[in-house]
């Protein structure tokens, strides 16, 4: 930590600061320039971070030298984190998995329709919301446990592991029971209690970037999860809030190579929520893969205009099929490939697939 | 709702749209201009809000005419909402209450020191964090129930009702038991489950604006609380996230007159978290009152540089005393006054004040 | 400047960096911590600012210690800058001048009507646009020199010095000839050529904050003007661009106390352009004065709905009169007063007032 | 235009509004809903845009139906605009030209070194700043005409057409004389006078998006240029200002497919200025091409750490060569190709290439 003293600080103020810092176990190093005196502090990172330096008399500013995250950092672990979800899908490897499905689970039949179509395309993971965070209390809030059951049944039917959002620590056991991957939504990226809870599970967690979260805050939230023991964290860029109104949010693709540099965790991209409009999704999905994304999360619905939420941003299965064809060569061009489940089209309704088989 | 059709839409697309809208019970009204055809939709606001218009073929854009909130709206209730907190303090009236105290409760003694000093100044409400949302998992997370007990004891000692943040629905009973006012923090403004829970209580709730929440989203979150029956909602502007880095966030004071126009709920301002630095707090507190704030929330600590969180933005009691003297004439200048508890300085440690007396 | 080396930098990289810095005349100071090696650089501020530190091999980050501005800084000049505009108006003093008038000069008669009404109210300075920066090439672009002549004639008539915007260095002589104060608009805050030009004049310049300019950039633009010799710079906060759409921009009032701390230059506030809607202007003008503004700039039109630009944000003279009555006690409450020209109401159309008299 | 009346508007207010609108030549259409009365206005787009609707008594809000731009719009011209720059380079076609070179021209020799290296790589266009917009008045401001001469000489030497920024209308003839493509920088996107001037030229103009400009404003600035007759406008996304500080700005790649949908003009991407750091440039350049960019603008310097501006974001020629190899397959994957000048490596210093040959 570098402390810059005010030009008019007194010798007493400097002495007081140094004394208090040393009492906290920090080593200090004073350096007097022509215009400013600087105090370097060396010691435990967690202590360094916590001190309200500018509330000391005579202090002008404080500049942290170390990044505040540890476990999520590439400095801590150099190699990419890799892990399996179900028998066919790996995160963090060369192949790029696609998570697709409806925003919300709206009923058994429509979910089956969507899942069958995605399965046919070889999509390895199914998403679907059971508990929906909606801006309005009068909007459809999700089917809750019933939706989880439908998803679980569809997993039996298709073999696709399922991804669903958890909004409330009280739903933990319920969601854990049914889901293969838990998702923390953008509005809960700093719901630290929820992070702490999922940090104690043994299932992968998709952590979505808060819509106004800095990269540093995003990684600190992942650090919450890892600090509790769960290393299977998937970071998901999903757009940040800016002044632009043509798109719902602004997809920050530079977060992808930046995160890949700072952390060993897999980084995926959700263009659907970032853009909020279906017409721009194909181009931005191609761009996400070119930027180095380790996975994709895309909303698909068989009849978007009947969707109970986010219809305006949902691809149809045909749209998804078309997008896959366009994605293949781009993935190849950057030395990757799409993770599609071979032979998926041979599994049909009625055939049971063992979970974990 | 106004639907604008694309210039090249077909007659079939228009017919399809109209048919579907009428099936949903909406009345439609087509108007053909030179360059665009427009479809007006009339019907239930909640239905109108939910339809993904742009996923219909031929639709260019959709423009809502009605604001999406009801219960919180001035259209719904014209007069200012007013309610008491404890015997001495009212929100929504002419007098402006100040809520002051430390960011986090750090121990019994330091809390007593702070509370006594504030009580001496006539401050009507004490704030203090028991559960702290911290960016880092390695930072001080609050003393939990112990902090609540300390606050409750200090209420006994000073008669000051206490305000504290709730972060987790599982803490509801605990926090309800000890606190007079519950606070929903900026990171939980869209924690809809938590909103739903506090909406079922009979105690006032301070709802802080999310740091990247629009005014509309802010009011929709208040609507969540009111829709469950709790009408005692206090809206708190606490700064929004912008590109400026000299201050932690940008205090959006225009939210005050804007909210006063849109809603009947009291609107208070927290300059401490918005600015993150103590030197700008006095000027911005004066400005908040001039802008029409119905209350203030300000961090005060007896020894800011020892504070375990947010020391850099805490006033000392002397700073607070000085600020009160500067606030008085400004409040008067805009036809208001500070709500200070008369005779507070006569209550001393050891004298017991009955809660509710 | 503090340079932080990467954890894996080589001794050669460090040596190379130090050598190059010393060649540039900088003193270096190496300090090895447990996790990072730090290089402190001392020397000429302008040289320090210009070096692309992170393009050196082995460098992780660079942290400037000194602020980049000089002449505009309080460190350079401690006392408030004060100067006269015309015989009756001073900037930088205790009294707060109001600059009022239409967005654009639309014709001789309407300008006279507005100016007479403002003069009647004691407003000391008249604003009016001759050259208008408009988003659309098809919008009214201002009357140009004719507008300047009308303003000049109105100055004869009322004695009010006039403020107008300059958009193009080629208009310099023209605008200089007619205007008493030149304004640089928000879109030209970083039109460095224009800044350099007005920096060579002997007339005051109102520099508006760019709508996405940081405080640092704002002051650097003022530095451009001062570095050419013109010390009569008035800084004007006029709203910054954020995600909020209820107001045109977000008025950043915290910029007022912050700027007053960093610079000796007067700081004024333009609530009209920040808010873009007339209903919020009174409250935010009161707040601006409470925050410490040294002046105000407010759009006034006799018939806002006929205005050729910015009608939606213009007060009527009656609105302005009412606002003055509300402003007086607030100014007094913060130890200031409004600068109103006494006896103004006795000057009438037809009576000639000598410029400078 | 759709006007929404306040719920408590009077019949007189409505009548007054309608009367005034019809006087302006607009047709009105009143529609009374349960909660709101709506007035539709039909007529000339430019008139519709200019009226300050909310300054009329009884009006709650106004909603424009038509986009405000014409000439730049796909509605106006369906096919992509295509044009040549020099004998070898086309914008708007299938092949993607790269514009590369130093931020600023720093001297004849270093420019020749850079240009030769780029020419060797087949880069079709050379960029270099003669007039530099710098935040600080004490920073290197460019070599002015001397830089233009060096660029012109290098064009002779290599055959590469040159791109340079114009900041001041007074430099128009000078820059026109030497440059093949004129660039309007991000800070001048709304320098409407400059736009008007370059709108009268017959040379292509690269218009950079203002760093806080909406897509609508961006297109309106292009409309300024086209409305004066110059249809050779190239739109350049170069990052927008957000709260994120790890990158200088946030590259908004979704602007690429969005602009391609709204306008027929070519859209290029400048990752260098958006990111401000060289390490993220390769990944984001690949992403730009995948997103559909029609061209790229990339800073290259032979010795970035000696660059007088923007060294931290400059690739070396080796970095550029490597990037080209990575770009080729991505371009191909999206049905495009890089526009590289074949045989470029055979042209050597000393051989004169005729301009336009």
From TrEMBL, chains A, B, C, D:
Domain DAHP synthase ferredoxin-like: 1-66
GO biological process, one term: aromatic amino acid family biosynthetic process
GO molecular function ontology, one term from the record: aldehyde-lyase activity
Organism: Desulfoglaeba alkanexedens ALDC
PANTHER family: PHOSPHO-2-DEHYDRO-3-DEOXYHEPTONATE ALDOLASE
Domain DAHP synthetase I/KDSA: 93-321
Keywords linked to the UniProt accession: Transferase
Recorded coiled-coil stretches: none
Name this polypeptide is given: 3-deoxy-7-phosphoheptulonate synthase
Recorded name of the encoding gene: aroF
EC number of this enzyme: 2.5.1.54
């Amino acid at each position: 930590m570098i402390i810059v003293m005010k030009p008019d600080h007194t010798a007493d103020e400097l002495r007081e600061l140094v004394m208090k810092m040393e009492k906290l176990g920090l080593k200090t190093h004073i350096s007097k320039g022509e215009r400013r005196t600087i105090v370097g502090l060396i010691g435990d990172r967690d202590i360094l971070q916590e001190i309200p330096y500018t509330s000391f008399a005579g202090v002008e500013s404080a500049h942290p030298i170390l990044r505040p995250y540890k476990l999520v950092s590439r400095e801590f672990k150099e190699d990419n984190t890799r892990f399996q979800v179900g028998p066919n899908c790996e995160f963090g490897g060369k192949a790029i998995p696609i998570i697709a499905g409806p925003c919300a689970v709206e009923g058994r039949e429509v979910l089956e329709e969507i899942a069958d179509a995605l399965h046919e395309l070889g999509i390895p993971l199914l998403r679907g919301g059971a508990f929906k965070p909606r801006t309005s209390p009068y909007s459809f809030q999700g089917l809750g446990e019933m939706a989880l059951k439908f998803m679980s049944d569809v997993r039996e039917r298709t073999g696709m592991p399922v991804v669903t959002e958890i909004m409330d620590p009280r739903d933990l056991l319920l969601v854990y029971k049914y889901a293969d991957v838990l998702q923390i939504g953008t509005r809960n990226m700093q719901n630290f209690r929820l992070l702490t809870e999922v940090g104690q599970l043994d299932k992968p967690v998709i952590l979505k970037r808060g819509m106004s979260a800095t990269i540093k805050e995003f990684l600190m939230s992942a650090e919450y999860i890892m600090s509790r023991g769960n290393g299977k964290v998937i970071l998901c860029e999903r757009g940040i809030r800016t002044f632009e109104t043509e798109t719902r949010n602004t997809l920050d693709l530079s977060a992808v190579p930046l995160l890949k540099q700072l952390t060993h965790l897999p980084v995926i991209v959700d263009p659907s929520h970032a853009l909020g409009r279906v017409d721009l999704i194909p181009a931005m999905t191609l761009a996400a893969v070119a930027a180095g994304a380790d996975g994709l999360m895309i909303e698909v619905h068989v009849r978007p205009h009947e969707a109970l939420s986010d219809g305006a941003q949902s691809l149809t299965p045909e749209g998804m099929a078309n997008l896959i064809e366009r994605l293949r060569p781009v993935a190849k061009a950057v030395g990757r490939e799409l993770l599609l489940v071979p032979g998926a089209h041979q599994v049909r309704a009625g055939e049971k697939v063992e979970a974990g088989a």
